[in-house]
Specification:
alpha/beta, Aspartate Aminotransferase, domain 1, 8-stranded mixed β-sheet, 15 strands, 42% helix, globular, binds pyridoxal-5'-phosphate
Length: 375
C-alpha cells in the first residue's frame, strides 16, 4: 500500500458511502480514465470485466471466440459463461503472447468454414503487450473485434501507448496479486464511452431508467464498492513506483543470471515496455543441470515459493474439446517456464537469497539426484 489508500477508504466509512456508489468510485474511474486515455468502469473483478466486455461485443451462445492459449483460466472462462466456444491460439517466442501468424491462419480457415469468430481475446502476458500493430491489422481485415485482456499489464506500454487501449474493449484486474490491487476488482475501458456506460448499467443489475424496479435485460451485480475504489485511488497514485519496483526485480535477476547457462529470461519485445509483473525464466535442463520441476522443488525446500508458467488452456481438462491452432510453443514455455518471486515488496536481501539459492541449485539438485540413485 502507498500513503493514501487507508485515508480514501476511511473517507468512505466517515461519509457512509460504503456501497456501490460514491465519491471514491467516481474519482477512481476519472483518474484511471485520465491515466489510460479512455473512459473506464469500475467492476468487481477482471473476470467480470471480461464477461461484460464479451457481451458488449455481441458474443452469445454458439459463437466462436478466439483466445490466447497461454494465460490464466479467467481469460477464457467468460466465453463459456456466455455459451460460446473458445478456440485457442498459440504464442510466439518473441513475446510469449498470441502469435499473429497463427491467428491469421485461424481466421483464414474460419472464412472457408463460413464462421468468423465473434471476438478475439488477446492477453498481455506477465506485463508485456502482444504485438497489436499486427494483431489489429489482421483482425481489422476480417472485421473481428479484439478484447484486450490487460489484467496483468497495467502500466505497460506498446509503441508509447498504454496497455489496455488496443481492444474495442479492454480489461484490467486489481486482484490481490496484481501490480496494484483493490483487494479484488477490475476495470473495463473502451474508446467508446457508450459501451462503458452500458457496462456500468449491466454491472448494476440493468435497471431501466425511472424510480420503479423495471428490467428489460439480464443484469449482473458486478460493480466495485466505494470502499475498495478508495484503495484503488491510492494505489493508482503509486502505480509508476510499483512498475519501477517490478522492473527492478527482473533486472536484478537478469544481471545475476547473465552468465548462468540454461536460465533464459522472458524476452522483452522491442515494441514496448513490460511491467515485468512476474519475473519469468526458461530452464534448459541440459545446460542448467536440472529440470524446471526439480528447480521448483529445490527452491521450495529452501523456503522460496516459485510457480510454473501458466498451463495453456488447450491442455486443461475443462477445455479438452476446444479447437486450437498450434500449441507447441505455449506447451514448451509451460514445460520450461518458472515465475520467480516478483513482488514489489520483495526486499533486496530477500532477492539476494533467491539469487544465491538459484546459483547453487544446479549442483545441489545434481547431488540430490545422486543420493536418490545411491539409495
Ligand atoms: C490474464 C488474466 N486475465 C484475467 C484475470 C482475472 O482477473 P480477476 O482475478 O480480477 O477476476 C487474471 C487474474 O486474476 C489474469 O491474470
Amino acid at each position: 500500500m502507498g500513503p493514501n489508500e487507508a485515508g480514501y477508504a476511511a473517507e468512505a466509512f466517515a461519509t457512509n458511502w460504503v456501497s456501490t456508489v460514491g465519491p471514491n468510485l467516481t474519482a477512481f474511474e476519472k483518474a484511471f480514465a485520465e491515466r489510460i486515455g479512455q473512459p473506464a468502469a469500475c467492476l468487481s473483478s477482471g473476470t467480470a470485466a471480461i464477461h461484460l466486455g464479451l457481451q458488449l461485443l455481441g458474443v452469445g451462445a454458439g459463437d466462436e471466440v478466439y483466445c490466447s492459449t497461454l494465460t490464466f483460466a479467467a481469460s477464457a472462462n467468460p466465453i463459456l459463461y456466455l455459451g460460446a466456444r473458445p478456440v485457442f491460439i498459440d504464442s510466439d517466442y518473441a513475446t510469449w503472447n498470441m502469435d499473429p501468424a497463427v491467428l491469421e491462419s485461424a481466421l483464414q480457415d474460419s472464412v472457408g468454414r463460413g464462421k468468423l469468430p465473434k471476438a478475439v481475446v488477446v492477453v498481455d502476458l506477465y506485463g508485456q503487450c502482444a504485438d497489436y500493430e499486427r494483431i489489429l491489422a489482421i483482425c481489422g481485415n476480417y472485421g473481428v473485434p479484439v478484447l484486450e485482456d490487460a489484467a496483468e499489464a497495467l502500466g505497460a506500454t506498446y509503441r508509447g501507448r498504454s496497455a489496455g487501449t488496443f481492444g474495442a474493449v479492454s480489461v484490467f484486474s486489481f486482484n490481490g496479486n496484481k501490480i496494484i490491487t483493490t483487494a479484488g476488482g477490475g476495470m473495463l475501458v473502451s474508446a467508446d464511452a457508450e459501451l462503458v456506460a452500458k457496462a456500468r448499467f449491466l454491472a448494476t443489475q440493468a435497471r431501466d431508467p425511472g424510480i420503479a424496479y423495471e428490467h428489460s435485460q439480464i443484469g449482473y451485480n458486478y460493480r466495485m464498492s466505494n470502499v475498495l475504489a478508495g484503495i484503488g485511488r491510492g494505489q493508482l497514485e503509486v502505480l509508476d513506483v510499483r512498475v519501477a519496483q517490478r522492473r527492478g526485480v527482473f533486472s536484478r535477476y537478469k544481471s545475476a543470471f547473465a552468465s548462468l547457462a540454461g536460465l533464459e529470461p522472458m524476452p522483452e519485445a522491442e515494441h514496448g515496455t513490460s511491467t515485468n509483473w512476474l519475473s519469468c525464466f526458461l530452464v534448459d535442463e541440459q545446460q542448467f543441470g536440472c529440470t524446471r520441476d526439480e528447480l521448483i522443488g529445490y527452491l521450495d525446500g529452501q523456503g522460496i515459493e516459485t510457480r510454473p508458467v501458466w498451463k495453456p488452456m488447450h491442455l486443461q481438462k475443462l477445455f479438452e474439446t476446444a479447437p486450437r491452432w498450434g500449441g507447441s510453443v505455449a506447451e514448451d514455455l509451460f514445460r520450461r517456464g518458472i515465475c520467480l518471486p516478483s513482488s514489489s515488496s520483495l526486499r533486496a536481501e530477500e532477492q539476494d537469497y533467491v539469487i544465491e539459492r538459484i546459483l547453487a541449485a544446479p549442483q545441489e539438485a545434481a547431488r540430490a539426484s545422486e543420493a536418490v540413485a545411491l539409495a
